[in-house]
Specification:
This is AhpC/TSA family protein. It comes from Chryseobacterium ureilyticum. Keywords: Redox-active center, Signal. This protein has a 6-stranded mixed beta sheet, with helices on both faces. The longest helix is centred in the middle third of the chain and has 17 residues. The protein has one domain: Glutaredoxin, CATH 3.40.30.10. By secondary structure, the chain is α/β, with parallel strands linked by helices. The protein starts with a helix and ends with a helix. It contains 6 helices and 6 strands.
């Protein structure tokens, strides 16, 4: 009976730790910028992607592997910023479930002002995705334009966690 109880506790704990989002926060640029600034004392990985972007979908398993590796670290956080349209929110939720995305996913509903907010995130960003920005204590430390390998992702995170 004790072993059965231990197994149930472990299963419950693991399912809570790996719980997926049941909803997606919809943000404007200013709200996302504020969220980034609130993550002081952390290495923050912000990945811009879309469900219809093949390179984005291809790199997401690497991001999830690295996110799961570091999820117990209080000085690490990953946010996946979907650039899908607001009308496609249900598709994003299904995608989160089907692809087992464990990092926080937000939907940036600010496409009409993209020429304003893209250069505020990174002057060198031409608007293509995927794009990944790395912040440490709220300050941008690295910009990756395009698909990112698991090795480069891990290296950039490890360098900044030190």
């Amino acid at each position: 009976m004790k072993n059965l109880l231990k197994i149930l506790v472990v299963l419950l704990f693991s399912s809570v730790c790996n719980a997926q989002q049941t909803d997606v926060s919809v943000l404007k640029y200013e709200e996302l910028e504020k969220r980034i600034q609130e993550e002081k004392g952390k290495v923050l990985v912000v990945n811009f992607w879309a469900t219809t972007c093949a390179p984005c979908v291809k790199e997401l398993p690497h991001f999830m592997e690295i996110n799961n590796k570091h999820k117990g670290n209080a000085t690490f956080k990953m946010i996946l910023v979907s650039l899908d349209r607001l009308v496609d929110k249900e598709r994003v939720l299904k995608f989160i479930k089907n692809k087992d995305l464990t990092a926080e996913v937000v939907l940036l509903d600010d496409i009409k002002r993209m020429n304003t907010w893209i250069p505020r995130f990174e002057k060198e960003w031409d608007g293509n995705i995927p794009v990944t920005l790395f912040y440490k204590d709220g300050e941008k430390v690295y910009f990756n334009d395009g698909e990112m390998s698991k090795e480069d992702l891990e290296k950039t995170i490890t360098e900044n966690l030190q």
